[in-house]
Every structure is written in C-alpha cells, then in structure tokens.
Amino acid sequence: MDTEEPPKISLAREKLLEEAKRAISGQGGDKLSLSIVIIGHVDAGKSTLVGRLMYDLGSIDQRKRAQTERSSEKMGKASFSWAWEMDSGVEERNRGITIDMAQSVLSLPNRTIVVLDAPGHKDFVPNMISGASQADTALLVVDATNGEFEAGFDKGGQTREHLLLVRSLGVQQLIVAVNKLDTVAWSEDRYNEIKESLGNFLVQSGFQQSKTSFVPVAGFLGVNLVDRLQPEATELEKWYTGPTLVETLDKLDPPGRAIEAPFRFPITNLFKGQNAASSGVAVSGKLVSGVVQVGERVRVVPGDESAVIKLIMADGESLPWAAAGSNVDIYLSNIDPIHLTIGSVLCPTSAVVPLVASFIAQVIIFDQSYPITVGASAELFHQSQNIPVTIVPLETLDRITGATIKSNPRVLSKGMSAKIRVAVRGSTISESSASASHARLPIETFKDNKDMGRILLRRNGETIAAGIILSLE
Ligand code: GDP
C-alpha cells in the first residue's frame, strides 16, 4: 500500500467551480470538447469512415498509412485498408469487424472530439453499451446501397437497436452519415428515401429533429468528409449544398455538464502506474458529475475505504483538476488496490453515493423473443457494470401521460412502458454478511443524477428494456 505523504488541495471549492465552468463554456480559450460514439449495422462502413476522416485531418501519418495498405493487400483485404486504421487487433483484422472500443481524437477548428468507435457485430453490443454510456453524441453510419440500408434497418439489423440503446443511455444529438452514396450514383432520391424512413423512426424513438442532422458521404472515397468538392462526386455537387461531415461535427453542442452536483467517477478500468511521478494504482473512466482536484480525499463505493487523488492525467497531460464530462486517468494514494474494482464509484467523503440492493425503475420494453414475467432474470447494465438481477413488473403505464394502466401485470411485452422493481440477485443475504456489499450497487435516482440514474436490461444477448431509476429501496 502506498502511504507516502499525499499532495495538498490547492483551490477552494468555489474557485474550482468557477474555473471549471469557465473552461467548459470555452471562455478560457480552450476548444469545447465532446465525445461521440459511432453506431450502425455491421459493414455500414463505420471504421472506414473514421479511418479516412483521421487521415484527411492529418491524424494518421503517411508512413503508417502505406504500411496498413501493404499489409491489407497482402491478406487480400484491400477494401478494408481504411478500416484497419481503426481495427488493429489480429482477430478484428481477420474477421474484418471492430470488436473493442478504439479511442481516437479529432482536432477540429472549434471542437476536440473523442471518437469511440463502436462494433457493428451483434455479439458485441455489451462493449458498445460501455462506450455509449460515456458518449455525448452519436454518429450513425448507414449504407445507402440498394437493399443494404433495408437489411440494416429491418428486424435483425442493428440500426434500430443501436439507436434505441444510445437514446436510452442519454445521447440526444445525432448525426446520420448516409454512406456509400457512390454505389447508387449519388442519387438524391435514394438519399431522401433513407432520410425519410429513418426520420420517422427517430421521432418515434425520442430524438428531436432540431438535434439530428443528415449528411451524404462516401467514406471510402473521402467524399464530403472534410472537403465537399471532389472529382469523384460531381453528381453530388449538383444537388447537395449543405455542410460536410466535419463542418457538422465542428458545430455540435457540448451537452450540459452537472458540475455543481457531487463528484461521481464510475471506474471503467484499473491499472498500475509505471513511472516515478505516477507509481501506485490508477483508475480510468469519465467524471459523470461534479469536480475533483489533486489532493482531495475520496470514498470508494462499495466499501468503507477512502483514497487521496495523487495525479490526474488526460491525453498524456497532468491536470490540477477535472470536471464532469472529462475522460481521465486518476492515480490514487493511501489505498490498497484490493479495495478497487471495475464498477466501483469514487465520490466525495461528504456526499457518498447510495448503495442499494433493489430499486424501482420506469422502462420501455424492447422487441424480444419472450415477454417479461414476474421474477424474470436479466442482466443489468449500469455505467461500466453488468450484474444479474430479477425483475418484478409493478404497473404498466401510458407511454405519453405516464398514468397507470394496470397494476401487477403478469407479463410485459414489446412497446410497453412500465414500472418495475429490479433486485440484485444474491441481495437477500443479511446486512451483516461479509458478502452483502457485493450484492449491492452504487446508483442514484435519475432525478438526483441523470448519468447514475439510467439503466439497461439485457437477456440472452438481447436488449429487453431501458429506462430510468425512480426510487431506491
Ligand atoms: P464497419 O463494419 O461498419 O466498420 O464497416 P467497414 O468500415 O469495415 O466497411 C465495410 C466494407 O464497406 C468494406 O469493404 C469497405 O471497403 C466498404 N466501404 C466503406 N465505405 C465505402 C464507401 O464509401 N463506398 C463503397 N463503395 N464501399 C465502402
């Protein structure tokens, strides 16, 4: 255990809040920063589009590009060479799909954008949830090719599920890249057809029209990503006069950050510091609310332990403090790493996050193979954690007014809105039992903290429901 003399706090709380607010509003001269998750059906061209975008913005160097091109040709997969900039794992290259959330940063004239590339394959939705729960915005990529847009959008395709997932995880802003327009001879009719069928679904799923933009592109050719005028796309220029993808990204609104709320930091990863300045244990994740500075003592929930913030790092830079919305690595001292786990939450000692074994939530039921009955088992996704739970339906609700339609329903099926009780499995163990803390979750109501108050339920690889926490029990 690291017991060296911890660093001292340098700013009073009021001063710290003031600085954080100034930085977040862009007044401090810093570019506004936000994160984006890339979603869409497998093979829609997500990795290719992001790879090409990075290259055109100068984030990938020529030598590395030439290397990737050569090795993708060698394996007979030249058409995937751009995607390879993003998909670097061997398994991903062999299968030509993106598995993990790769992270890259786009530096635009007015915005710094952290790109979380989401996997398109069906098995990988859980990875995407962890990415999407950290994202401010989503970029949906759809394949405009005849028949391909439909395959990705109809039942069995991932377009709808991804959209419902990100929306229920709190993402409000959406950019839709209508991709591979080269395969339909840059047809304006095809673009409008896709825009219309998606548009209707988006409205039904709760995306506001004013926060949704559509951009026609061809990722592989680099058309309308950074530059609109391309020799390949004279047909597109005849009818499209709107912004490029980069212009659209550069105008995104950073979402409101809950800076004044208590500090909450769900741990998404744990590692050991390497050098002298950063020895000891480190945790990574996103500050979902509040502010924190070097020298502060924080509680680790679950458990009774506390630690001192020794160092805060982001993009290789050491920071004196961090505020809601930032993805950072935090180095801790005065704690034994045994007390830290993925899914634990760091919080102020004066405003500890509640720890509960069951709660009441309001959810929307998704399309699924079997309806939800009393006592149904499911997997609960909350921040970076997933844990087994049992569900008891309490009431079905009117989707618009929220009024009770029926109490104690026997089953919940697709499209219903419902109030349910969710209990962590194994949580009947008595309070005094040593393992009781493992069966409780650090969560909050949606009213108290929007990010800590959202949940998602999955079963047998399907997302069955998503919603918000109404009360803790
Ligand atoms: P992902 O699964 O969504 O990440 O898709 P990939 O980026 O791996 O791309 C899937 C396939 O679509 C690859 O063969 C790409 O070369 C191809 N592709 C991507 N963008 C375009 C495009 O703009 N036009 C055409 N014709 N093909 C593209």
Mean pLDDT: 83
Span of the ends, CA to CA: 35 Å
Put simply, the count of helices is 11
Oligomeric organization of the protein chains: single chain
Inertia-based shape: globular
Low-pLDDT sequence parts:
87-102, 428-437
What is the number of beta strands?
Answer: 26
What helical percentage do the residues reach? 10-25%
Structural class: alpha+beta
Strand content: 25-35%
Subunit structure: Component of the Dom34-Hbs1 complex, also named Pelota-HBS1L complex, composed of dom34 and hbs1.
GO cellular component, one term: cytosol
Subcellular location: Cytoplasm
Domain Tr-type G: 31-257
What do you see in this structure?
It catalyses: GTP + H2O = GDP + phosphate + H(+). Keywords: Cytoplasm, GTP-binding, Hydrolase, Nucleotide-binding, Phosphoprotein, Protein biosynthesis, Translation regulation. Component of the Dom34-Hbs1 complex, also named Pelota-HBS1L complex, composed of dom34 and hbs1. This is Elongation factor 1 alpha-like protein. GO terms for molecular function: GTP binding; GTPase activity. A six-stranded mixed beta sheet has the order 2-3-1-4-5-6, with helices on both faces. A six-stranded antiparallel β-barrel has the order 7-8-14-11-10-15. A six-stranded antiparallel β-barrel has the order 17-23-20-19-25-26. The protein starts with 12 loop residues before the first helix and ends with a strand. Residues 87-102 and 428-437 have low confidence and may be disordered. With 473 residues, the chain is of the alpha+beta class. The chain contains eleven helices and 26 strands. It is globular and about 65 Å long. The protein has helices spanning 13-24, 46-56, 62-74, 83-86, 90-95, 125-132, 148-153, 159-168, 188-204, 234-239, 245-249; strands at 32-39, 102-107, 111-117, 137-143, 173-179, 212-216, 265-272, 281-286, 291-293, 297-301, 306-314, 317-319, 321-323, 327-333, 345-348, 355-356, 358-365, 372-373, 376-382, 385-397, 404-407, 411-412, 417-424, 441-442, 454-459, 462-472. The protein binds guanosine-5'-diphosphate. Guanosine-5'-diphosphate (GDP) binds next to α2.
